[in-house]
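Hi W.,

Here's what went into the run:
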Amino acid sequence: MADLAGIDWAVAAVLLPLIGAMACFAVPRAAATIGLAAVAVTGAAALALGLQVAAEGALTVPLGGWGAPLGIDLRADGLSVVMLVMTAGVGLLVSLSALGERDARRRRYFWPLWLLLLTGLNGVYLSGDLFNLYVMIEVISIAAIGLTVLRGNLAALKAGLEYLFASMVGAILFLLAVGLVYLNYGRLDLSGLAGIAGAGDAVLAAVLALTLVGMALKTALFPLHYWLPAAHAGATAPASALLSALVVKASLYIVLRLFQYLVAPSEVMVTLIGALGATAMLWGGIQALRAPRLKLLVAWSTVAQVGLIFVAFARAGADGTAESWKAAALIMLAHALAKAAMFLAAGRIKDEVGHDEIARLDRSPIRPTLAQFTFALAAISLIGLPPTAGFAGKWMLMEGAIAAGYWHWVVVTLVGTLLSVAVFSRVLAGFLRFDRVRGPLGEHQGWALADAPPLVLALGALGLGLIAVQVLAFLEIGAPLGGTTGVWP
Amino acid sequence: MSPDLIYGLAGLAVFGIGFFRALTLAAPLRRVLALKLCAVGASFLLIVAAYRQPPVTADAVPHALVITGIVVMVSAMAVALALIHRIAVLERERSDG
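Here's what came out:
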């Protein structure tokens, strides 16, 4: 064990998937084997890092011995580890469900792209440096666009192109923000920047505006969500699950970090973020009610859930963000598990039934009951019924909002919750109606091993609610950075 | 007007034109070009601003940022062009068949 303890798990979590991606690309015949092994080993590294952080607190790794401000630091604290482990867990289960892919071209390109995506995600969660964040978010974008167009048909390509344009604009804005930070403060490491910036600084306002718009484009916050539904609905099932569950979280994470290190959010800023989130929640819900197809409905629900995460951040005003970010992180976690389960289940239903038109689901004599059950479980978490993780997140949101007297966020969240009940009832009613079926009904048709990964994910979303207290305690590890952060306690 | 103010305003103008067109144009190839302009404008701003640091020689770090930005933009551009080409091929096939 003495040797094992010497391994730099943070470095391993970034390098292992990168090496795996290259190996998958070089040996396409063994891509699935190499890919699955790389994801599993990366997950193990994330867990080991988690244990280390739990034992020793937040840790910083200067890469190559070059520390900040000149070199690049990797930094792992409670929030990073929770995101890493979430990525590893969801990623492993989605990988398992991707093993069933029969199309040779998709099978060949899925694994290098997904591992490259994993590299970028882990890189973002471990970055202690603004410029590193920029590079890693671009690695994510390129890999995510590859996954979006993996299906290879015209609709997927067009959606991917739209996504690419949105992502490129976001990248330019973020690069400009990073450059401004350097020119004004002379450094890019987050820990060094904490506390340097004074409130009311004009350059800082520009940096904030550029980053927020850039990240809103990448995470699809209303009104910059226009590219998301087509992109997420048009991809293959495992790719949709990865895009919706994991990719949007990286840019959300950057927003959280920005407020943690760079600038204390002002009341106006928080209200604006919350208002955009609330609109996203309502608009996403309404569009999901109108969506003709199952996958499109699930994609619109992602728009609504991203809105909910921003509302959670804004729930108690600027002074409350010291606690509110934990509610946001918890909902991010809940959404990752439930949405991955839901997209995979939707893909299974489409495979078995042969279409995913919601209006015709009740006429199908084939009932993939296990996938439907998984879909329902995931819906319960997204709606936020106890004891799911979604419930824990929403509970925390409303508790904080009520305590701080921000009743409007409570009302908005309740309306959004009602909307999602209506949205998922549309689908569940189709699952449960049998009177419109002509011909014999197969009760247990369409059960397959491929139902296992989404079911485990959905059960995970259910079970996570039971250990929400422990997750919240873990999130707090190392969050204050040498006592210099203005916002986080 | 000092030279760096002129450079700075020019960079901002190029960035603005590119940004505006990237959001408003419909034709994919034109949007790629608009994005290129936008990126060039942003890079130009950072390069010019690097000369305004207290030592009169340029600060190398913003230049390094811009070089990385160029690498990222070139690869994103390549992906965009490949997608546009593939879309054109598929659309031609569909209208022929």
